[in-house]
Amino acid sequence: MPTSTLALTNTRSTSVSFAESILKWESVLFAVICIADMITTLYMIHHGVATEANPMLAPFLQYGDATFCIVKLISFVPMLCIAAWYRLQNPKFIEISLRFGLAAYVVIYLFGTCRQFIG
Fold it and tell me: Taking a C-beta distance cutoff of 8 angstroms, is the pair 52, 43 a contact?
């Protein structure tokens, strides 16, 4: 078997599909954190203890919970799909990017939450 054929065979056996890529822990955790943020935001708003800190999402609350949830999902689901697609070409870059994004999201979430409750 020629070397190039062997290398191609090995590359295919280690590659992942789009579905496997979108189910990698970084993508799943990112989605879970975003959905948890969405749910806790709505809970705290309905109980009068917080407001939406994101100025791009806040206006959509006036149109109801469903609209807010749809816009919130639109804010991260396409990015996770693009990341899953690009992971097929450059897995290390996406791993690092999503991990950085996760850390940044948590820091920003904690900062926004603390700012509302502490002042």
Answer: no
